[in-house]
């Protein structure tokens, strides 16, 4: 089975991890500006000089050079996010920031020069800080309206230039990282977390409707953190625990695809004594379902009584049969075929792999381990295509080195392109092609035949 003729090969990034220019062009602060150490420590009171994301890899000034390198690799698609606080610096303004809109106009112009399709994420862990601190983040219903205004603004501005949109990055992660995903500080209760994610789901449905009204050719996808979960043993308790954990992972994808809360989630909320505020308007907005489902895939976990898996957002326990990366994430190429089949069988919606990659401490440009990782995962993708899965494309995570979301380090590198910057902020920011750059170029040029 070969890859489809129109398969979208490319790479993926997020604004807060590549752009820099954190106060340039009228941009306001986002939650990332008070997370200098990623998920390791609580948010700071304000920006601190040790936050690598203030400069990141300086895509804000170097985007023509970077997009030219993506074109050299043969990218058909480039996934990036719009920083909400570049368009509405505080998040609650009525008029957008023209400089921010113009920046993304310029990025799109460069992509168009090389025939690269944009895939745009509206909210990639970048809630404006003002909305987090003054409104309490997504637990506040008012954010639905602010997000609708922001989405309408960019969708009208880039009408005909952007076809593929994602609403919230890894929407299910709010349960594990409420500040990163929902701008909610402290330790919110389960009630607050589920109410916040309900607000995001309503906003997502509403924006899907807005996108289709603005341009019937728009394709809107949800984006979930996909984690194959295997029972650690065949004990019935481990089997049931695995099923329950998988349901929690996929619940919000169910809402996006089916337009309503699944029965198992209603029971979970009922058993936990969680009563969500759901209006008649909410129910109507949820019924605007997505055109496709996108997801990130990095690792699988087991469920049962065992050692913790090491994945910050994933939970679960370690699989004794798998190797582990330097950062404790277990490497499971077969899990990608497994989850592709799982999601296709469950939803029968076109799928899009929008994050997959290996974080490693590169010593030089000879990154054979990264080539081996991607080759094995793409071979698994090819098998899933043979299984009958409908797949739009594949964008490798961190196609150019960037600041890690979970650890805020530069040394956790994912890219096919090396960026000369270290964890202490030193470096020239010069770009260099790794060995994997040429390998991925050949994979794309052959449409996967060289795998």
UniProtKB/TrEMBL annotation:
It is an enzyme of class 3 (hydrolase). The active site is at residue 355. SUPFAM superfamilies: (Trans)glycosidases. InterPro entries: GH (IPR017853), GH_1_N_CS (IPR033132), Glyco_hydro_1 (IPR001360), Glyco_hydro_1_AS (IPR018120). PROSITE patterns: GLYCOSYL_HYDROL_F1_1 (PS00572), GLYCOSYL_HYDROL_F1_2 (PS00653). The keyword Cell wall biogenesis/degradation does not apply. Keywords: Glycosidase, Hydrolase. GO terms for cellular component: cytosol. One of its GO terms (biological process) is carbohydrate catabolic process. Transmembrane segments: none annotated. Gene3D superfamilies: Glycosidases. GO terms for molecular function: 6-phospho-beta-glucosidase activity. Its EC number is 3.2.1.86. Belongs to the glycosyl hydrolase 1 family. This is Aryl-phospho-beta-D-glucosidase BglH. It comes from Corynebacterium kalinowskii.
